[in-house]
Design a protein that fits this description.
With 585 residues, the chain is of the alpha/beta class. The chain is built from 18 helices and 26 strands. The structure holds adenosine-5'-triphosphate, pyruvic acid, potassium ion (K) and magnesium ion.
Length: 585
């Protein structure tokens, strides 16, 4: 049995763009609907409640721009007969759905930074099996050739094993950082030792206790007495003498120096931002990396040290001009004072954001980082942009096989805030326990999600309108209503049929109690949806006829034991703006 609400889309109603009074009248009229029994769908008995026969709204059915950069399939406008009767989902999701049922699937997405500890094919596969949704490559480290191989391995994994692991390329940015140690993987700075920070080029052999600095103005900008913080304070020095390009510093807080660690300097308790504040957000090296990322078909580019929305807009138009047939999403990394000042406009311009707590904690006092995280997560949710919580989630697991209690509490808090994704950095890039770290993120996410769901601990959040057209507003209202209905009726799953992924992300924004099966007809959209909270992305070809889409999906999923007769489902689509409630036949 199925009940549905179909909404009259406004193309033929001549609605002024922001006529909210009309919008509310329109919405209030929705319950006044007539009931007609139809026998249109033979596969399952259907009772259809129609508000109006629906016209297609051109702005909702966006033409396919998500053709796989991998060349896996033709655009959706050319139905692929070989694939038309299949559904793409990976073995891990499939096993999880079969074993645990819908309710207990993980909602929080997991990102792993790929480094020397995880770059092999088997290691990448273990991470995919362990629940990695997105692989991050950090252009601060390694060569383009090295990163290309990682991308190719992930692509192979997706093609051969049906995963939809997305790739996020993270730019180096042009903040001040140390160089490499001429081959050594780290160096230990002890109390009271004198180290030389220098802007000279030394070639491959560095003199002892010498650190290369990437920023030419460094020696001029620092002053004797300044405090020099490595990685936001993991190691501290005091500037004792300036000698041309060399700056002599005394270690005041000992610790491990890692290659290319970030450097900040502080004077009288404040972060010093001299000429380095004028460095471009995207350096010339970053532009080359971005060209590389576009050419390799990465799914996301994360921009380090974003200061304003302008740079995001600039990059987005560059990407649009460079890659007409692929779609690279831009993630703003919030890791500077400026990015916090301009937070709303930056997030509005971006396709998502990252709470990059590593560098953020070097720019603002550490005790302010949790409040900043909370605010960034909330703003992203309100503006319907995926948000990633990153850095030091399980830092101790770089060396130890179990996390600290404090780390588990930190992960729990990010899950409780219902961030879209959690990210591993050093834990997976160069740690000793990458898979164990991922397993901890997975089990803590599952446990906290269930706890908060069962105890109804969620903070209620007002979700403002984010669309720019009346049709967008309808989609938002449909998703908010569908999510509310799903919670109130206790349905097993929400199904969403989405070409661009937009309707799926609107549903994800509502953070419903049940999982969201997101059906899309392009591989690249499927990968991109893998970053968003609660979405289980499937690739399936579908038509503009919702009834046949539903029947087809039901039979494909039933054949694979992923759903069973009697499961209660609410279906939403951006093909036909509608909500349907039904039992799986
Ligand atoms: N491709 C790589 N090759 C070698 N080492 C890497 C690579 N990627 C990451 N690492 C190591 O893992 C550590 C943590 O990675 P992460 O991506 O967090 O870098 P980061 O240097 O802290 O910079 P960011 O602020 O961009 O996160 C790095 O400091 C580096 O030692
Ligand atoms: C991830 C990152 O760039 C940071 O935490 O600084
Ligand atoms: K980076
Ligand atoms: Mg950073």
């Amino acid at each position: 049995m199925s009940q549905s609400v179909h909404l009259l889309t406004p193309s033929n109603l001549a609605v002024p763009k922001h006529n909210t009074s009309f919008l509310s009248t329109f919405n209030r009229r929705l319950p006044v609907i007539t009931t007609t029994a139809t026998t249109a769908v033979p596969v399952f008995p259907k009772l259809s409640i129609r508000a109006a026969s629906s016209d297609r709204e051109p702005s909702v059915i966006v033409t396919d721009n998500g053709t796989s950069s991998l060349g896996l399939q033709p655009p959706a406008s050319q139905p692929d007969h070989a694939l038309s009767s299949s559904i793409e989902v990976d073995a891990v999701t499939e096993a999880e759905l079969r074993e645990n049922g819908f309710r207990s699937t993980r909602r929080t997405k997991l990102i792993c930074t790929i480094g020397p500890a995880t770059s092999g094919f088997e290691q990448l596969e273990s991470l995919a099996v362990g629940g990695m949704n997105v692989a991050r490559i950090n252009m601060c480290h390694g060569t383009r050739e090295w990163h290309r191989e990682v991308i190719q391995r992930v692509r192979k994994l997706n093609e051969e094993k049906g995963y939809a692991v997305a790739i996020m390329m993270d730019t180096e940015g042009s903040e001040i950082h140390m160089g490499d140690f001429g081959g050594a993987s780290s160096a230990k700075a002890e109390d009271d030792e004198i180290w030389t920070f220098s802007v000279r080029a030394f070639g491959s052999t560095l003199p002892e206790r010498t650190i290369n600095v990437n920023y030419d103005g460094f020696a001029e900008d620092v002053k004797v007495g300044d405090e020099l913080l490595v990685d936001g304070g993991m190691v501290r020095f005091e500037v004792v003498e300036k000698l041309g390009p060399d700056v002599k510093c005394r270690c005041t807080d000992p610790g491990l120096l890692l290659p290319r660690a970030n450097l900040t300097f502080w004077r009288d308790g404040s972060l010093v931002r001299e000429r380095n504040a004028m460095l471009p957000t995207i350096s010339s090296k970053d532009w080359l990396d971005i060209d590389f990322g576009i050419a390799e078909g990465v799914d996301f580019i994360a921009v380090s040290f974003v200061k304003s929305a302008e740079v995001i807009n600039h990059l987005k138009s560059y990407i649009a001009a460079r890659s007409r047939d692929s779609d690279v999403a831009v993630i703003a990394k919030i890791e500077s004072i400026d990015s916090l000042k301009n937070l709303e406009e930056i997030i509005l311009a971006s396709d998502g954001a990252m709470v990059a707590r590593g560098d953020l904690g070097a720019q603002i006092p550490l005790e302010q980082v949790p409040a900043a995280q909370h605010r960034i997560v909330q703003v992203c949710r309100q503006l319907n942009k995926p948000v990633i919580v990153a850095s030091q989630l399980l830092e101790s697991m770089i060396e130890y096989p179990t996390p600290t209690r404090a780390e588990v509490a930190d992960v729990s808090e990010a899950v409780r805030q219902r961030a879209d994704a959690l990210m591993l950095s050093g834990e997976s890039a160069m740690g000793q326990f990458p898979e164990k770290s991922l397993a901890v993120l997975r089990s803590v996410s599952l446990r906290i999600e269930r706890w908060w769901r069962e105890e109804k601990h969620h903070e209620a959040m007002e979700l403002p309108g984010v669309g720019s057209s009346f049709s967008d507003s309808i989609s938002e209202e449909i998703c908010i209503s569908a999510a509310k209905m799903a919670n109130n009726l206790g349905v097993d799953a929400l199904f969403v049929y989405t070409k661009t992924g937009h309707t799926a992300s609107l549903l994800s924004r509502c953070r419903p109690d049940c999982p969201i099966f997101a059906f899309t007809n392009t591989t690249s959209v499927r990968r991109r949806l893998n970053l968003q909270w609660g979405l289980i992305p499937f690739r399936v070809s579908f038509s503009d006829d919702m009834e046949s889409n539903l029947n087809k999906t039901f039979s494909l999923l039933k054949a694979r034991n992923l759903i069973k007769s009697g499961d209660l489902v609410i279906a939403v689509s951006d093909i036909l703006q509608s909500i349907q409630v039904m039992n799986v036949p």
